[in-house]
Amino acid sequence: MSHDDFPTDDPAVVTCGLPYANGDLHIGHLRTYVGGDVYRRALERLGQETAFVSGSDMHGTPVAVNAEQEGVSPEQFALDWHEQYAATFPKFNVEFDNYGHTHDETNTELTQELVRDLDEAGHLYEKEIMVAYDPVDDQYLPDRYVEGTCPYCGAHARGDECDEGCQRHLEPGEVEDPESTITGNPAEYRERTHKFFDVSEFSEYLSGFLDRLEGTSNARNQPREWIDQGLQDWCITRDMDWGIDYPGDDGDQDLVLYVWVDAPIEYIASTKQYSERVGADAFDWEAAWKEGASDAHPEGGEIVHVIGRDIIQHHTIFWPAMLEATDHTEPRAVMASGFVTLGGKGFSTSRDRAVWADEYLDEGFHPDPLRYYLATNGGFQQDVDFSWEKFRDRVNTELVGTVGNFLYRSLLFAHRNYDDAPIAEATSDEVDERIEEAIADFEAAVNDYSVRAVGDAVTDLARFGNEYIQRSEPWKLVDEEPEEAAQVIHDCVAIAKAIAVLFEPVAPEKCERLWAQLGEDGSVHEATVEAAREGPAGDLAEPTELFEQIEDERVEALNEKLESRVADTEDGEGGDGDESEDEPADEGATDDSGDTDDMTDIEPLSDDRISFDDFQELDIRIGRIEDAEGIEGADDLLKLRVDLGAETRTIVAGLKQLHDVDDLPGTKVVVLANMEKAELFGVESNGMVLAAGEEADLLTTYEDAGPGTKVK
């Protein structure tokens, strides 16, 4: 693995968190898969050798219980869902190079091999632990069928995670006041012998790993707190029949491996299956995943994990410790997405309050507009809210009004007035420079792990194209200044070709259609950014509009359908609005949809109003952070020097655990400048930096407002 800018000479593997084979997919689930697909396509546009892999997580208690309720084996139950997922992802142009599952032979063999390696290296040991047991129902209770109180923060917690509080991973026996989620019976703890991985021995390594880790800042910052608090060793076995057997030969065959042991190993297994299918010359899985396996790639490949933020700890603590202990390549980057909400509230699968993946397609919508919405609506680590109104506005304004409008008007004018392209000999300097700027923005977006910026590079280029053609008015020049008109249209077709290449990661199917309209050879999926520099060369076909307007009446009908469905479900439940009867949350490798089954609703808007005069009294300014440093004795606070135009002020902000301190200088922020001064840990704070949510998402500007600009 290198830390050079992409593209590098080492093979890259992009993975997505494994969907748990236990239920239908909705558009909230799709965010990480679309994000992963956009990112790997963007890498390929740069010329990076890349494998894109994932698979279904087949193991865990919910699969076993639900299979029993349906009267089928756990394997058959999970395989049915696996096959559905494998068919659904391509419908949204999410095209994995390999999509496997955790119960197949490859993953089983690799998992047991890696666990043996951990054991032989002295990293596993036995320990007597307290396991929850339901004395009424006479059964041991694996993690997700226990709930109670988090011993660290006091919040309500699941058996293996404080999902409503501090988000900390919990070991068996840690939850206080345990209850069975199956029967509701109070549980008791009984002593059992289990296997442990000595994660605590890797604290120093993991601190260094987080210093090296690229990706989103939440993936680096959250785990630091857990390391600082002291890592606990990890119980890697469970009392179950369904799963991968612990590979012991001393009577341990009644234990299976914890689902979080075999789930990430599927990343390796899926890459291996891809190599076996295409040949090691096309992609060498060992060169990517094993340090020293290849002379050409002695440090392994570029591993990028795209996940939901609720599984950060597994990918930045347990998984890299396993890889380090067994001489595998550590991840280069972890991109952790925010949740997706629906109209300001969480998805609720139990109440049918969701836009299902198949439903979206059945309504006749093309997949690429949804890909655009999920990829570009906010930074990747921020929460995204979906509503049919917001979806309509983004599609109509940006895809139809900006990108689609430029492409159709340019290509239609060229097709009607010229025989073929190139229309002029070369692209003008102005347009050539603007295309180069878009390519630079695209390359920077890839190296910043920003799928949003990948899309923005294209919409910004299309805005320039609209301004350029409007300013140049070729329809007025075509008769009186034909050479000048030809140059303008050649430039516009050149921009259209660049858009086809650079927008392919976000809208692959639409861009393939655009590529055909441009008369270019081959497939846009094989084109790199070099093709965007070459200018048009093909015979133009008569264009058709790429994106369709969404009418207000359509949105109203969709909202009525959703509201009716939710009301019917609530009536069927007695209309009490109680979420407690929802099915237990998934135990598998991904749980990032934003279901209200797993997260609380967004706080309602306040009914208390202020007057316009009160608002005018707030002096809100744009600032730029000049430097940032920690404050002695304060775990969360930073001392910032912020340029407010007229002066530079010292402001104390609680950002230390949530942002990379070294990345803050140069960041533009929004500051409440007339906040009363306060002294915190001996530092006088003269203002307040504004941020949103638990992750302290800093408010900033979209355009170029400078320090001191007043927010009105």
From TrEMBL:
Q: Where is the TRNA-binding domain?
A: 614-712
This protein's GO cellular component annotations are: aminoacyl-tRNA synthetase multienzyme complex; cytosol
| Keywords (A to Z) from UniProt | Aminoacyl-tRNA synthetase, ATP-binding, Cytoplasm, Ligase, Metal-binding, Nucleotide-binding, Protein biosynthesis, RNA-binding, tRNA-binding, Zinc
**Compositionally biased, Acidic residues: which spans?**
569-605
Please state the Enzyme Commission number of this protein: 6.1.1.10
**What GO biological process terms are annotated to this protein in UniProt?**
methionyl-tRNA aminoacylation
Which residues does the record give as ATP binding sites?
349
* Catalytic activity line of the entry: tRNA(Met) + L-methionine + ATP = L-methionyl-tRNA(Met) + AMP + diphosphate
Q: What class of enzyme is it?
A: ligase
GO MF, one example? tRNA binding
Co-factor(s)? Zn(2+)
Where is the segment annotated Disordered?
560-608
Quote the cofactor binding remark.
Binds 1 zinc ion per subunit.
Give compartment(s).
Cytoplasm
Give the principal location in a single coarse category: cytoplasm
Q: According to the UniProt entry, where does the motif 'HIGH' region sit in this chain?
A: 19-29
- Residues binding Zn(2+) are 150, 153, 162, 166
**Matches recorded under InterPro entries:** aa-tRNA-synth_I_CS, Anticodon_Met, Met-tRNA-synth_bsu_C, Met-tRNA_ligase_1, Met-tRNA_synth, Methionyl/Leucyl_tRNA_Synth, MetRS_core, MetRS_Zn
Family membership, please give it: Belongs to the class-I aminoacyl-tRNA synthetase family. MetG type 1 subfamily.
Q: What does this protein do?
A: Is required not only for elongation of protein synthesis but also for the initiation of all mRNA translation through initiator tRNA(fMet) aminoacylation.
Known partners and oligomeric status: Homodimer.
Task: Spell out the HAMAP family in the cross-references.
Answer: Met_tRNA_synth_type1
Protein name, entry field:
Methionine--tRNA ligase
Give the source species: Halorubrum saccharovorum
